[in-house]
């Protein structure tokens, strides 16, 4: 395709929606169409005036399952951290902890009145499930996934992206600090 005829991201999304069948992805037709429409709106939307929030999340479990905690960082798009949160979440698996970190971040962003979010996670499973690339087969993760999808629907835009662990260090530190802090209940 010549540079003059280069397709926009929105046009690529429209073409992809016409080529890929919902059942190929294990989705209902209505869910696939709704997803494609949301993606197109997101790609065509102007950048948020306030820049939105950049969020880093991490979940940690020692033992898998074992004692678990979450780490969440919320920052302005310019990089200034506006909130950090680390907390124990009891005994669970690492994947559940990752979802609980996402849920916590979405709740905090909603409380802050944010409308546009970019969430970074080093959990490839969570990112691919939330972006519709993997189905959620685990019975323990499905309710958390559905809750996260419902919370995401309350924002104008939510982008969930995978980052290497090296670019998610502070969220990992917060989760591990929470695990290393003596439990006041013990």
Offer a few descriptive terms.
Nucleotidyltransferase, domain 5, 24% strand, five-stranded mixed beta sheet, 186 residues, 2 domains, disordered N terminus, 6 helices, globular, alpha/beta
Topology:
Layout: H1 9-19, H2 29-44, E1 53-61, E2 66-76, E3 81-92, H3 94-111, E4 116-121, H4 124-130, H5 142-152, E5 157-162, H6 169-180
Parallel strand pairs: 1-4, 4-5
Antiparallel strand pairs: 1-2, 2-3
Helix pairs in contact: 1-2, 3-5
Could you characterize what this model shows?
With 186 residues, the chain is of the alpha/beta class. The chain folds into two domains: 7-44; 53-180, Nucleotidyltransferase, domain 5, CATH 3.30.420. 40% of the residues lie in helices and 24% in strands. It has six helices and five strands; from the N terminus they run H-H-E-E-E-H-E-H-H-E-H. Helix 1 runs antiparallel to helix 2 and helix 3 packs parallel to helix 5 (142-152). It is globular.
Classify the secondary structure makeup into a structural class.
alpha/beta
Poorly predicted runs are 1-5, 44-51
**C-alpha end-to-end distance:** 65 Å
Order of helices and strands: HHEEEHEHHEH
Q: Radius of gyration, rounded? A: 18 Å
CATH architecture of the largest domain: 2-Layer Sandwich
Find the CATH superfamily of the largest domain: Ribonuclease H-like superfamily/Ribonuclease H
Largest sheet: 5 strands, mixed
Roughly what is the average pLDDT, rounded to an integer?
Answer: 85
Please give the number of β-strands.
Answer: 5
Spatial arrangement of strands, main beta sheet: 3-2-1-4-5
> Which of globular, elongated, flat, extended, rod-shaped describes the shape?
globular
Count of discrete alpha- or pi-helical segments spanning 4 or more residues: 6
Q: What's the number of structural domains?
A: 2
Indicate the percent of residues in helices: 40-55%
CATH topology of the largest domain: Nucleotidyltransferase, domain 5
